[in-house]
Amino acid sequence: MKDLTQKRWLQIDSLLKKVLEKPPEERLNYIKYSSGSDPELWSHIENLLQLHEEAENIIGESAGTFAAPIVPGLLDELEGTDRDFDHPGAQVGPYDILETIGRGGMGAVYLAHKTSSPYDKKVALKLVRRGMDTADVVRRFRNEGQILASLEHPNIARLYDGGIHTDGRPWFVMEYIQGEPIDIYSDRTKCSIKERLRLFRIVCEAVHFAHQSLIVHRDIKPANVLVTREGHIKLLDFGIAKLLEPNKMELTDYRTRTGMKLMTPEFAAPEQIQGKPITTASDIYALGVLLYLLVTGRRPYRLGTASMLEIERTVCHKTPVRPSDAVIGKPLPAPPEAGEDTFDPQEAARLRGKNAESLKKELTGDLDRIVLKALRKEPDRRYRSALAFAEDIDNYLAGKPVQARPSTFRYRTQKFISRNRWAVTATAVALFLIFTGLGIAIWQARVAQLERDIAQQEAAKAKAAQDYLVQLFETADPAENRGAQLTAREIVRGELHGLKRTLVKSLKYILKCSRYLDVLNRHSEILLFPPNC
């Protein structure tokens, strides 16, 4: 295929994309129909399709898939040998197989119960695939059992038993969880955003417990976070967990010799996709993807069937859309071959008890910041721990300032008012009434003072009038009236008459003075300027 021309490659690439859009059972017929009389094209497409399907089996839905040596026909052979345990009555150790629960690249999980137990307690039994029971895989499988055995937490599936099957394959038995993935449960019960956040913070606490035990989960996704009928969270599958304390257990490198990375790409952190060291920050990123999915109904990126190169370009270099924009249908970052987006904003909002606009409003602000902080490309810029992530969820639910947002005075004030709405309202009303009463009291005091000033002025006027009248009566001469008794009116009339006489005398005096001045002026001109000069 190295000698193919560019035109031929484009033809093969175009046809392969169309083939991958078809259901698996229709792909071969479609290749035959589309290739026509070109058997070489048919052969190229078949080979590429086989490689694609093998890659899906290795790094597809199950992040617990461990790469086996790639030899022709291995996966088909393994698929057939595992069917030996699909029928009721098959036995593994002291356990009877009841039915198959699920399959992954590493092995199969069965519903079982212990034959010698007096109690009919169902358990989940995990058995490694035949053909993958190499020393390396067996060691990893046992590591998973030892990791689970060290995790005793109410929200983590417990390990009960373990052993080696007659054919040399290891098995272990864990708590059987009857539940459904957290996203499906939340949608089915139409949980509100706050209800989803309360479920999510429990997941954070379980992950934090594992981190305190120096264990990184590395495969946090809805299928590994189940909700029971009673609403309890259970975290499953530490199959590819990495111990942070190397001396505690001998571990091999979880990147296979073929260069493949063990992960679920849509939930893998950028450093995980690039093959860099995995830390607790990688689980923080996966928790951010899970929260993004819970609140919006979408993942941060649409990867589809893209190649690992395109997945790396998208996850490591493109910025995710804010959740508040994602819920109204804004296009998400995606490789060119990701396919058409079929997201329905109104349906997603309905499953959360809102319409698209009100859901956008609820996510805008703090929740946007919380989710995007967990999805930072740089591990050291995410939450420092899963517990810190849970605490920020608690802050949001309690109406307190969140760590993901700058703590400005205005922001803290807004959160305080929002958190204490009734108390602030009551305080504001009380202050309004106090200041209103104080204002009324001050106004009334000023009015009273003004009235007192007016009263004092009126009293002064009355006193002056009284003094004048008293003086008037005291100065009246009874002799002038020949002993007659004078009335107040006569006294006032007499006083006015006296004032009139005084005024007339004053006017006469002024006129007389004016005539003297006129004569004096005329004589002064004659004296100063004689006619003969």
Describe it.
The structure is a single chain. The strands form three sheets. A six-stranded antiparallel beta sheet has the order 1-2-3-4-6-5, with helices on one face. A three-stranded antiparallel beta sheet has the order 7-9-10. A two-stranded antiparallel sheet has the order 8-11. Helix 1 crosses helix 3 (39-59), helix 7 packs antiparallel against helix 15 and helix 14 packs antiparallel against helix 15. The protein has 533 residues and is an alpha+beta fold. A hairpin with a 3-residue loop joins strand 2 and strand 3. The radius of gyration is 49 Å and the shape is elongated. The protein contains 18 helices and eleven strands. The chain has helices at residues 6-20, 27-35, 39-59, 74-81, 135-149, 182-188, 193-212, 270-273, 280-296, 308-317, 323-326, 345-350, 356-363, 366-374, 386-398, 409-419, 421-475, 488-528; strands at 91-92, 95-103, 107-114, 122-128, 159-164, 170-175, 179-181, 215-216, 225-228, 233-235, 242-243. Helices cover 51% and strands 10% of the residues. Mean pLDDT is 77; it is low at 57-79 and 243-260.
DSSP helix fraction:
40-55%
> In DSSP terms, counting alpha (H) and pi (I) runs of 4 or more, how many helices?
18
The count of β-strands is 11
Provide the gyration radius in Å: 49 Å
Oligomer: single chain
Could you spell the SSE succession in H and E letters? Answer: HHHHEEEEHEEEHHEEEEHHHHHHHHHHH
Widest sheet: strand ordering: 1-2-3-4-6-5
Amino-to-carboxy terminus distance: 148 Å
Task: Output mean pLDDT.
Answer: 77
Strand residue percentage? 5-15%
Query: Largest beta sheet, briefly?
Result: 6 strands, antiparallel
Structural class comes to alpha+beta
Low-confidence segments, given as residue ranges, are 57-79, 243-260
Q: Label the overall shape.
A: elongated
